[in-house]
Each structure stands twice: as structure tokens, then as C-alpha cells.
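Hi R.,

Here's the chain you asked about this morning:
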Amino acid sequence: MTTEAIKPLAYGIDSYLEWIKREGLLVHEGLALNLIKLETADWPRFGVNGAALHFRGSGDFCSMFLMDIGAGRASNPIQHVFEAIYYVFEGRGSTQLEFSDGTTRSFEWGPRSFFAIPLNAKYRHFNASGTERALLAATTTAPLMMKIFHNERFIFDLPFDFTDRIGKEAFFTGQGDLHMVRPGNNMWETNFVPDLGELELTSWDDRGKGSKNIIFALGDGIMHAHMSEIPPAMYKKAHRHIDGAHVLTLTGNGYSLLWYPGDKDFERVDWEYGVVFPPQANQFHQHFVTSNNASRYIATGIGGMRYPLTEEHRRIALGKPGEKQSLSLSVKDGGDQIEFTDQDPRIHEIWREEMRKNGIPSDWDPTKG
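And here is the predicted structure, written out as C-alpha cells:
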């Protein structure tokens, strides 16, 4: 054994956070953030203003990035081996993709557009306005991939083509394939949705009378995304799942309550367009509409129904053979949903008080349908 002094071994490194520091990215943190109101700063790699968004409940696999593209500008051409699902808050423009065989795809987007970048495809975003910014947010698997490889040259310069991820040309035009699996698991396979507010959903009454949803299969990737709709002046059943599902309200008015069993009080997030919050791991959460309009929200994370990442993802997405998925199964039966008849009585009273404040009479009793 040598007695020569050596440099202490580095340990406990978070390769993703170290990369964020090297990028010089502005970082915003919190339980919930309104992305439209956040400050952005220069992000040289993408050639736009941007920010990293780190939520309390974002978990280990995903994070969000905000991209603020100035009037008449475009992002730099880029490719990366982390997956990215984009949502457009403001502005109109287009995205162009280039593949190794020389073929290209392009599509035009506007507010509430939603799309995936096929893995490692080279792409650019273009702002079509000469006077207004375009604001997009991307949920990505950057934390997972940075922690696995801890080498940004590999992440951004890998010369490999995932041609199997491109999908049909129609998937870039707003078309898709509807796979009817079962309520709560029906899937829309595509790469681009022009307007999430207009997409037709399927019924999921197990979550509450009149509830609707659709699960997305985007870019043949491992990321999860689903959209749900709650009927006017009603609310859904409480449920829980693993962390990392970034919830974004699209339409309607209301709020969400979050809690763990044994908590004396609820954490509350009030909705407005632009607010994102990921519930923490196995934290019960419940969504409430306090207007006479239906409300939609989109949730993006990791571990989709097609490719569950972990066994916990598999249990939540698929359930046991011959049983309902756990998100449709009561906690009394080993699932992850609280039935209306079993919920804390304070929950309904809080909602009724909000309805009174909004001047909306309601005698709805969720236990009676």
C-alpha cells in the first residue's frame, strides 16, 4: 500500500444537477409553479431563454424545462438521448425534425399543442411571430439519462438513429391511432396533438361519474402522459401513485388537495392556466371543479402503459391479471383510490364552501352518483 497522499474520492454526485450548473440555467423550485409567470434567462445550448423547473414531487426520473423563444427567433438545431414531451403555452410556430436518411418532418403548433420529439432526432423550434414570444415547456427524462451516463457528449452527440421511434408520417399531422383497451387505459398513439382542448376523450366512470380520460403513446417512448376531464361543478375521487406526474391545468376553474394518511391538514393548489404541480410519491390528491365548465388537465411523467419502467409502474398502469388497474381499485381492496363513501367528510364541505363563494348552487351528493 502506498503512503502517498491522494485526492479524496468524489462521492454522492448528482450528475443531473451538476450538468444544470454547467449549463448556467436559471432554476425555479416549489410545490407548484405558474410557468407563464416565471423568469427565464439565456440558455446557450438551445439558443433561447430558458429555465429548469424542479418541483417537490418531481421524483428521480423527470424534470421540466421552460423555453422562451423570442419574436422571430428559432432554437438551435439539437438532438439528445433523453425523451422530451412539449406543451405550448403561448405563441405560434413550427418544429422541424431531420433524420439521418435525409427525410424531414415538420408541423405547426399553437397554444395547447402537445408533441413528442422522437429519441435523438435533430430538431428546431421556430417562432412564427415577429412581435410576440413563444413559450413552451418540455417534460424530459434528462435527470435519468444524466445520472446513468454522466457524460453530456454522449447525451447530445450520440451518432445513433432510433428509426423505430419516428412513427407514421400521419402522426405528425394531428392524426393518430385509438387503441381501446379498457376504461382508464384507452390510448391515443401519435406524435402531435394540435389542441389538447379539442381532443376527444373516453369515459372513465370508475374515477367519478362523467369523468373522461385518454392515455398517450408518444414517439414509442417510455414516458407517460394522460389527459383527464372532470364534469362541471363536480370532482373526482382521490387517488395516489408514484411521484413525477407533472399535472398542468388546461381548462376550467378549481383546485386540488394533497395529503398523506394521518395528515391533520390538506395542502392546496389553486388552478389557473400555467400552474404545474407533481404530487409526491404515494401522496393522495384530489381534483375539484368550482365552475359550470368542465375542466381538463394533462399529466406528464415516466413509465407509460406501453413500456412500464419499473414494476411499480407496471402495477399502477396494468394491475394484476383479471383485476382492475390499481387506480380504479379502492384502497380497501389493495388499490390506490378512495371511494366517495370513504373520503374525509371535510373534503365535501370544503368544496361546497368554494361553490357558495362562486355563487353556484350545488346539492350534488357524490355518494349517490
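One quick note: The chain is about 10% helix and 35% strand.

Cheers,
M.
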